[in-house]
Design brief:
The structure is a homodimer of 219-residue chains.
Chain A lengths: L1 H34 L2 H9 L1 H22 L3 H35 L11 H20 L2 H30 L6 H42 L1
Helix pairs in contact in A: 1-2, 1-3, 1-4, 1-5, 2-4, 3-4, 4-7, 5-6, 5-7, 6-7
Subcellular location (chains A, B): Cytoplasm
Function (chains A, B): Plays a role in the regulation of phosphate uptake.
Protein name (chains A, B): Phosphate-specific transport system accessory protein PhoU
């Protein structure tokens, strides 16, 4: 049993170091957006395989533990949640890469006198990711639920971005429609990133509430 | 052991009936796109909870089987794959709903003399979903790999849609930029739908190749 607990701790460490790496990438992409930093964008694209490899490792480790220790109830639910959260973290990595690619693409356009400030939206998405991982570690329902609320705020900013960019196109601020569409799509990638953080939080809620239901049956 | 086999068969039936329902929705959304059928779009939005409920049921059933029968090796890998594929099917349902919502939104715009024909793209996405589910049932590596190739074709059409719609906006075919952006976003929802079919196929490849590696070790 002690051995099993050590294995669970190892899994927690693994998913959290993947989480930390993904958080780092989200933080970097914020800088990329702010500074139009093409060199950093290219580095992010180049290093995506690190996240992919860690995802494979986490899943393999979870499968090994399930096969070896045959956990039930809470422990099994936790390991399945980790497998799903793992998947969402990897897809957050993909969204970061998508944003990096759009910034590289935008940088090839001639200078367009229109910028969209993504900082508030990206800050919220980053906070959502951090809080969703915290809620996983601390099994904290409040944190998880706060993530779900923040997702509504990110959606609202996405809709605002849509309206503003649409209006800018209609007003002909630039003839470079490709540039404007890239701006629009960046906001959607940030939204999807936030969606994956929401999935993580929902998984934590489900894990905690599932426990409550189970306890309820036992009482 | 016979009991366990019956449980596995039950899971297969459950994931396939979810797959069949999602396929039906994808087929319906093709019609919605072709006929701008707002009534059917609203019905699809209204019925999404059916898919959500089936997803929860499949995951709960998988967890129950793992906890009760403590499968290892191939059977465990299969059940974990089902949990992940289940998740992708539910998200395909979400993409179908997103497309339905865009069609409802478009229908409120004044008539714009510009249409984009999604039929080829949607046909390919539908074929990908069908083939990915076939590859799961038959554990067929060839089918799964064909899905991955089709994904490249869908991506190519998405890029074509982007170029064509961008050019149409630049040429001022309509002042209704919102309408044009909705057209663009529909193509991206179809692409994401195809991405989830690709995830399913990749999961099947991983499952089959994982087996091969395991057999290799045993020999």
């Amino acid at each position: 049993m002690k051995h099993f607990q050590r294995e669970l701790d190892k899994i927690k460490k693994m998913i959290l170091s993947l989480g930390a790496l993904v958080e780092k990438r989200v933080h970097q992409i914020k800088q990329v957006l702010e500074d139009r930093d093409v060199a950093m964008a290219n580095e992010i694209i180049h290093l995506d395989h690190e996240i992919d490899q860690m995802e494979v490792d986490v899943e393999e480790e979870c499968l090994k533990i399930i096969a070896l220790h045959q956990p039930v109830a809470t422990d099994l639910r936790f390991l399945i949640a980790v497998i799903k959260i793992n998947n969402d973290l990897e897809r957050i990595g993909d969204q970061v890469v998508n944003i990096a690619q759009r910034v590289v693409s935008i940088s090839k356009h001639p200078v367009v006198p229109y910028r969209f400030d993504y900082s508030v939206m990206a800050d919220k998405a980053e906070a959502m990711l951090r809080m969703s991982l915290d809620s996983l570690v601390n099994q904290d329902l409040d944190d998880a639920i706060r993530v779900l609320h923040l997702d509504d705020e990110v959606d609202a900013i996405k809709n605002e971005a849509y309206d503003r960019i649409k209006t800018a196109i209609a007003n002909g601020v630039t003839e470079d429609i490709g540039y404007m569409i890239n701006l629009l799509l960046i906001s959607r990638h940030i939204e999807r990133l936030a969606d994956h953080a929401t999935n993580i939080a929902e998984e934590v809620v489900y894990m905690i509430e599932g426990e409550i239901v189970r306890h309820g049956r036992l009482d």
